[in-house]
Amino acid sequence: MFKFLIALKSLLLAGLVATSLSAQAADDAIKVVYHMSEGIPQASRAINNIRNHLAADPKTKIVVVTHGLGIDFLLDGATNQMEQPFAGAIGELAAKGVEFRVCNNTLVSRKIDPARVAMEAKIVPSGVAEVARLQAREGFVYLRP
């Protein structure tokens, strides 16, 4: 009888843990880092991908990390291939919780005044280091549009 009670307790505990983990996983948002380094065409694709991503899963935590030519759409006055400003799309996505990060190394090497960076974006020391940090330390999934 004693062994039966121990086995029953073990089963109940295992069920409780499994239920708890399942509930926790359902509540946790998926975290995604979009890595951008290729310029305006990539930015246009990424904006569409992010809109579609959020439409499918509005709870997703998205961080866009840019370096190299990837920062261009986050600079004042940036437009897409059809001469439409990116500012509206950036504001729209930021209002939905999307974060934008710009590589300071790129700003320095390209001699770009940080004041030109969109107010929705945060400047980080290194874009590639930020991508690695988000993946290794914060569990972000990597996407490159």
TrEMBL record:
Keywords, A to Z, come to: Signal
User: Which spans are transmembrane here?
Assistant: none
Write down the Gene3D superfamilies for this protein, in alphabetical order. Answer: DsrEFH-like
- Coiled coil segments of this chain: none
- Name the source's superkingdom: Bacteria
- Signal sequence bounds: 1-25
InterPro entries hit by this protein: DsrEFH-like, Sulphur_relay_DsrE/F-like
Protein name, per record: DsrE/DsrF-like family protein
